[in-house]
């Protein structure tokens, strides 16, 4: 099996032929799918020398498409001097090996390309560990194909051949490496969990959405922080957390998360679950949509599917239709506003839009603040700190020995975390969040 990752980096391998397959009974989205694959390859600075599409009743076990189509792909690759062939479908190990032998090109699939992008964009130890776990899981079933040429040399005897022994060695090493990485990731996850526990008093908002929808640009604009934003797929792999407004009480934190994509490899979803915990622990999700994309509705469905898959389907959502400055249809915003009552239409480059969105998020929590009375141990400094940081304190009473009584306004999410100390709750409308006076 050719080393596709090396081929992606080699100067002579900067062009690829992409292949789409439409199976009987499927909706024909082949052009959109190959357009997205082209964008994925562009993120790796690989040009597309041509595209091939085949309609089939079913896939062929040997090479996925028919052998006649493989010959067509081979000729197109030769004519365009393309060194790689990329399928939009996931290939098995034997299919990759057969296709490489039949075309004399490096062969990969959509999953392999996404994994390569993740590997290049990973910056922190956590992201690098997550990506390596996913890559090992992706390669494990393909190890047999890598050594099948040795199997053919062993003859018809009953003894195990060189290839089978090497496969066993490779698989054992891969499993050992994955075990070490998972232990390492578990340790990182515990550290991140401790960090999240330290933020118990804050309200949490997570940006979610399809890759390249503009989440990081919105994060930077809303928090007035310098956060790198690139016009490429999967520029953000590590969740970053910033205060939406450091002076507000309770404090509202905004987190940026990894983007989703159609057919996101399951191994990546699994390995990135520790990062996606920022989503699971959010009190509100901002679902960012690139409304300028011609197929943005399908991207919305993909994001909703992934949110359900990770267990975040019931978290309240505010739809944020981004890149409004790129939309030429004046009726689109009106149509979507009627369909999505809880939504906003913005351009991440508009200060006015970002300020309005910031106010809308804060107003969401304002409208849900409730009045409550808390009874806490007077000597529990950590608990007292949480109350002072997370609540609007209307009245406090330390006259009872060893106890402290607080009358507060508090967000339901924080109230749930302090339920053991609640004496009474009364839902009373509130006009706005308190802001500290400027220094």
Features:
Rossmann fold; 17 helices; 43% helix; six-stranded mixed sheet; 439 residues; elongated
Entry summary:
The protein has 439 residues and is an alpha/beta fold.
Write up what this structure looks like.
The chain is of the alpha/beta class and 439 residues long. The protein folds into four domains: 4-118, Rossmann fold (3-Layer(aba) Sandwich), CATH 3.40.50.11060; 123-195; 199-366, Rossmann fold; 370-435, 2-Layer Sandwich (Alpha-Beta Plaits). The protein contains 17 helices and 16 strands. It has helices spanning 4-9, 30-43, 67-80, 93-103, 110-121, 125-139, 143-146, 148-151, 162-197, 215-223, 266-271, 277-280, 296-309, 332-339, 351-366, 381-390, 412-417; strands at 15-23, 47-56, 84-87, 106-109, 203-209, 240-243, 248-249, 252-256, 284-290, 317-322, 343-345, 370-377, 392-397, 403-410, 422-426, 434-435. It has a six-stranded mixed sheet with strand order 6-8-5-9-10-11, sandwiched between helices. The longest helix is centred in the middle third of the chain and has 36 residues, at 162-197. It is elongated and about 85 Å long. Residues 147-158 and 431-439 have low confidence and may be disordered.
**Per CATH, which architecture of the largest domain?**
3-Layer(aba) Sandwich
Helix content: 40-55%
Strand content: 15-25%
Structural class: alpha/beta
The CATH homologous superfamily name of the largest domain equals P-loop containing nucleotide triphosphate hydrolases
The CATH class label of the largest domain is Alpha Beta
Q: Provide the number of structural domains.
A: 4
Low-confidence stretches: 147-158, 431-439
Across the major sheet, the strand order is: 6-8-5-9-10-11
**Number of distinct beta strands:** 16
CATH topology of the largest domain: Rossmann fold
Q: Describe the sheet with the most strands.
A: 6 strands, mixed
> How would you sum up the global shape?
elongated
Distance between the termini: 64 Å
């Amino acid at each position: 099996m050719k080393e596709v990752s090396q081929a992606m980096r080699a100067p002579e391998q900067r062009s690829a032929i992409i292949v789409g397959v439409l199976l009987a009974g499927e909706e024909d989205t082949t052009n959109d799918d190959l357009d997205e694959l082209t964008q994925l390859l562009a993120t790796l600075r690989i040009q597309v020398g041509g595209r091939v599409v085949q309609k089939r009743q079913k896939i062929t076990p040997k090479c996925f498409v028919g052998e006649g189509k493989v010959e067509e792909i081979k000729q197109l690759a030769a004519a365009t001097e393309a060194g790689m062939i990329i399928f939009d479908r996931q290939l098995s190990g034997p299919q990759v090996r057969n296709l490489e032998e039949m075309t004399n090109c490096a062969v990969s699939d959509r999953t392999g390309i996404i994994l390569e992008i993740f590997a290049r964009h990973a910056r922190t130890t956590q992201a690098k560990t997550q990506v390596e776990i996913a890559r090992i899981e992706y390669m494990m079933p393909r190890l047999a194909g890598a050594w099948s040429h040795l199997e053919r040399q062993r003859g018809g005897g009953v003894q195990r051949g060189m290839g089978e022994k090497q496969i066993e060695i490779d698989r054992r090493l891969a499993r050992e490496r994955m075990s070490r990485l998972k232990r390492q990731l578990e340790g990182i996850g515990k550290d991140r969990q401790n960090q999240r526990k330290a933020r118990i008093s804050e309200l949490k908002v997570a940006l979610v959405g399809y890759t390249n929808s503009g989440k990081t640009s919105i994060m930077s604009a809303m928090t007035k922080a310098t956060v790198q934003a690139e016009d490429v797929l999967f520029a953000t792999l590590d969740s970053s957390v910033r205060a939406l407004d450091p002076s507000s009480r309770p404090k509202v934190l905004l987190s940026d998360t990894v983007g989703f994509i159609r057919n996101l490899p399951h191994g990546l979803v699994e390995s990135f679950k520790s990062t996606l915990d920022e989503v699971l622990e959010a009190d509100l999700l901002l679902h960012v949509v690139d409304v300028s994309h011609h197929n943005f509705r399908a991207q919305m469905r993909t994001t909703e599917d992934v949110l359900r898959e990770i267990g975040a389907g019931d978290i309240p959502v505010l739809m944020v239709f981004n890149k409004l400055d790129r939309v030429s249809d004046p009726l689109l915003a009106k149509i979507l506003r009627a369909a999505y009552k809880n939504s906003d239409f913005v351009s991440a480059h508009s200060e006015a839009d970002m300020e309005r969105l910031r106010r809308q998020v804060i107003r969401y929590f304002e409208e849900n603040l409730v009045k409550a009375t808390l009874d806490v141990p007077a000597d529990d400094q950590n608990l007292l700190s949480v109350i002072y940081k997370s609540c609007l304190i209307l009245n406090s009473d330390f006259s009872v020995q060893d106890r402290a009584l607080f009358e507060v306004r508090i967000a339901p999410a924080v109230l749930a975390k302090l339920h053991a100390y609640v004496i009474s709750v009364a839902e009373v409308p509130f006009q706005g969040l308190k802001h500290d006076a400027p220094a």
